[in-house]
Amino acid sequence: MRRYWAGLAVLAVAIAGCGLGGAEPDSAAPVTNVTGEVKGKVSLQTWALKPKFTDYVQGVIDGFERQYPGAEVEWLDQPAESYSEKVLTQAAGGSLPDVVNLPPDFAFPLVEQGMLLDVGQADRQLADVYVPGGLEAYRYPGAQGTYGYPWYLNTDVNYWNSELLTENGLDPEKPPASLDELISQARTLKEKSGGKVHLMSRKPELSDLVNAGVPVMSPDGTRFVFNTPEAVALLDRYREAYKEGLLPRGVLTDTYAGNAKLFTEGAVAWTTAGGNFITSLATDNPTLAPKVVPSPAMGTPPLYVQGLAISKATKNAPAALALARWVTNAENQAAFAHLVNVFPSTKASANDPFFSKSDGTRSGDAKVIAFTSLAEAKMLEPVQVTDAMKKFVRQQFALAINGEATSKEALDAAVAKCDELLKS
Amino acid sequence: MTHHRWFTPWLLVAPAAVWLFAFSVWPSINTLVLAFTNARPLGGEHFTGLANFGRALNDDQLADALVNSIVYMLVCLPLLTLLPLLIAILVEKKLPGIMFFRTAFYTPVVASAVVVALIWGWLLDDRGLVNGFAQWLGVIAAPVPFLTDRWLLLFSAISLTVWKGLGYYMIIYLSALGNVRRELHEAAAVDGAGPVRRFWSVTVPGVRNTMLLISVLVSVSALRVFSELYVLSNGTGGPGGRDMSLVMLIQLYSRGFTGHLGYASALSLVLLAVTIGPMLLLLRLNRKAA
User: Fold this and answer.
1) Pairwise CB contact (< 8 Å): B42 & A92
2) Contacts of B148 in chain A (CB under 8 A)
3) Runs of H (alpha helix) within A159-228
4) Closest-CA residue in chain B for A26?
5) Residues of chain A with pLDDT under 50
């Protein structure tokens, strides 16, 4: 009997101990010492750059070690899949590498927990070196400071299948520039092709609401407010278009990448994608690639940012800061952007003709369009928007578009759920 | 005579016990504890009493998921309990080439659920083989929305589960049928019982225990369905998320930097309660019938 009680006691202690006690925001954490000589070991974590860019990254690291003799970089590269889970495990386990590649939305929860270094405070020259949009991406509501060195940037460009457009009486050189024109041309394409192909193949996202002038959150970032009459009108337009058969039915369950997939298959004549889409299309559908015409995105182009953040728990802040600055300097970024169609976040690259002058190919045109668009590109969705919120919003928009709920009902439900997820 | 030290048996079971504790018992205890907290992947967890369960009561997504999971079970249960038995009876016969059919029925079991669901997705798409063929035959004017209508998507996934499960349960029935004594069939035939009567009066009672086992297995796995619905709906749970299963909902809340681990744990306990219910009912029915 005594053994029985002893067992229960052990179990009770175990239950009391497990689960609880995760990472707490640590306001009393020692201030990271950011000054000092650049030497010793420093770890750098990139996201899916091996093996395609092994030579490039290794070259950058070798350059750093030559520049700072005594410094030694340990390079970790994580696979593309489940990167957020990996970073999460590292953060929760206290093993975040010194310098980590984190897009702004991944960095936000870590900033909230006080796990990242305010590089704005540690490095006063940020504003002179990097473009404002890139830096802005790493400034968060409720937190003072800048929490990442912007690395490479990208945005969306419109791509049109010129063959499908021409065959169906549309001019690929005069692509639609607004939703009205898009719907009108989608109608022409549907009628001429007998419904075999579509022009439109994506349902609106929160970013489309932003482009229609709808605020997603209240100015203080504490609640969602995108259930406005303008948003209702936008969803109504999509519902009518859907009812008219201007969008494939699969759009209801497609994710954001769905339209690029349908475009690659030749089932739709329009997609949005990054500046390097034609290059990847040349592998996936070589016969289609030469027929693709790019044009600027409709409305404000979205800004996609990758950056390097520094763990607040780093034991070698001087080397971590120097390494992040080194990897993201104009020279190294330009070299990277020459290898793959991404764009540098450094001001010094603005006048590089490599980005601003097309080589005459459609792919080159797309690159120039993307580069020029970056000047006005913005992060359209607030960082507080989580994957669970995005999923719920998509589900509700699908419900409004197929007519099972009114646009107002769907938007109200989406706002209520986003608020609930934000607060809980 | 060999003397064993007192700890020898413990040493022998230690690897399995450690494994079981680390990957089964401990996570279960942890889930139980987290269900009463507002745990997040990062950030402190605080005891919140029954708040997560209160939240679950008002969660429309959970209501939809429960309905889906229960419909899934109610449809799969009779189909996957009876159809494999009929197929097992068919392929039990010793005919030339019967191995081909046995293998053919079993093949879907070997295939990965995700791969099979992807193939079914292509088949059932608006521009897929099924709709294309039906339109070519002139049976339908417009494609049937197998993957974008709430109930059609659910029943498409159920069909996939049934098709994929047939072979597995057929094998279990085949071994059970081998234990039904031949003389009973012969005696019944002599008494004038036809094939249908022999099925109900000899075969079914002979495999009753196996049927119960299969019913329990089917109901548990149907309530925990994930891959079929996830892949067929592109991970979206269909329009309005109305085709999410309970497991999909748990997955949604437990992932990412901003996961709601406390709430996901509470949902896991709801799933546990829902799963135990039909199991107890089936066992009770069996005891009554025995």
Assistant:
1) yes
2) 249-250, 252-253, 402
3) 162-167, 179-193, 206-211
4) B43
5) 1-30
Cα separation of B80 and A372, whole Å?
Answer: 59
Cβ within 8 Å, pair B258-A386: yes
B149 in a structural domain: yes
What tokens appear for A115 in the block? 């796990």
- Would you say A175 and A134 are in contact if contact means Cβ atoms under 8 Å apart? no
Cβ–Cβ under 8 Å, residues B36 and A15: no
- Residue A51 preceded by cis peptide, ω within 30: yes
- Put simply, whether A253 touches B (Cβ < 8 Å) is yes
Does the beta-carbon distance from A18 to B240 stay under 8 Å? no
What gap in Å lies between CA A254 and CA A107, rounded to an integer? 27
Which residue range forms the structural domain that includes residue B256? 35-289
Does residue B1 fall inside a structural domain?
A: no
For A:40-79, CB contacts with B below 8 A are none
pLDDT at position A22: 44
Antiparallel, parallel or unpaired: β A292-296 and A40-47? unpaired
- Mean pLDDT rounded to a whole number for chain B: 90
The Cα-based distances of B252 to A48, A192, A257, B244 in angstroms read 24, 42, 19, 10
Given this model, what pLDDT does residue B42 score? Answer: 80
Task: Report the residue from A15, A23, A258 with minimal CB separation from B29.
Answer: A15
pLDDT at A78: 95
ipTM of the complex: 0.81
Residue B85 in any domain: the answer is: yes
In contact, A398 and A409? CB cutoff 8 Å: no
Query: What's the total number of domains in chain B?
Result: 1
Tokens at residue A296, please?
A: 């600027």
> What is the rounded end-to-end Cα distance, in angstroms, of chain B?
46
Q: Exposed (0-12), middle (13-18) or buried (19+): which is A423, by Cβ within 10 Å?
A: exposed
Predicted confidence (pLDDT) per residue in B167-183, tens digit: 999 999 999 998 888 88
Q: What per-residue confidence (pLDDT) applies to A39?
A: 87
The whole-angstrom separation of Cα A115 and Cα A101 is: 14
* Minimum-distance CB partner of B255 among A19, A387, A395: A387
Percent helix / strand / coil, chain B, rounded to 5: 75, 0, 25
Say which CATH number the domain at B56 has: 1.10.3720.10
Alpha-carbon distance of A119 to A32, in angstroms, equals 11
User: Does some domain include residue B159?
Assistant: yes
- A152–chain B nearest CA distance, Å: 23
Pairing type for strands A270-273 and A149-155 reads unpaired
Of A249, A246, A243, the C-alpha closest to A192 is: A246
Q: Which domains does chain A have, with CATH numbers?
A: 40-155+303-373 (3.40.190.10), 157-302+380-423 (3.40.190.10)
The low-confidence residues of chain B, meaning pLDDT below 50, are none
Phi and psi at B3, nearest 5°, equal -95, 130
